[in-house]
Amino acid sequence: MPKNKKEMEYIGLTTSKKNYGEKNLLYCQINSLTILKKIDIYKKLRKEEFALKRILKRKVKETYEIINKLEEMLPETKYDKFKPIKIHKTSKKRKDLESEIEYIKRKIAELH
Fold it and tell me: What is the secondary structure of 30-65 as a DSSP string?
């Protein structure tokens, strides 16, 4: 242990350990640069996304304006704009048909 804080100790490294450390350091640098590159690509894509969103918003606004102009130009009708659609339920009929089919099959089975 060094007696004085200014004294340094040296550790001997073999060539293989030195090469291993240098390789790891270089791989870390490559990974860091790759991450920075991907961050730059991400920033570029976000800018494009915001630009496209602004364009889309403008186009939607223009479309609404055109629709409003068309509604003003078209004559008014006496009919409701939206009529409720009646939905016919056929599930009960289907069950009745299926029960009749089963009844007929039983009759046929009794005949055999």
Answer: HHHHHHHHHHHHHHHHHHHHHHHHHHHHHHHHHHHH
CA distance 11 to 7: 13
Indicate the Cα dihedral angle 47, 49, 54, 59, nearest 10°.
150
CA gap 73, 65 in Å, rounded:
12
41 vs 48: CA distance, rounded Å: 11
The pTM (predicted TM-score) of the whole model is 0.48
Both tokens assigned to 15: 């060539």
**pLDDT tens digits, one per residue of 8-59:** 777 788 888 889 999 999 999 999 999 999 999 999 999 999 999 999 999 9
Answer for the pair 9, 2: CB distance below 8 angstroms, yes or no: yes
- Residue 30 carries which side chain, given as an amino acid letter? I
Amino acid found at 81: K
Distance CA 35, CA 30 (A): 9
User: Residue written as tokens 């790759």?
Assistant: 34
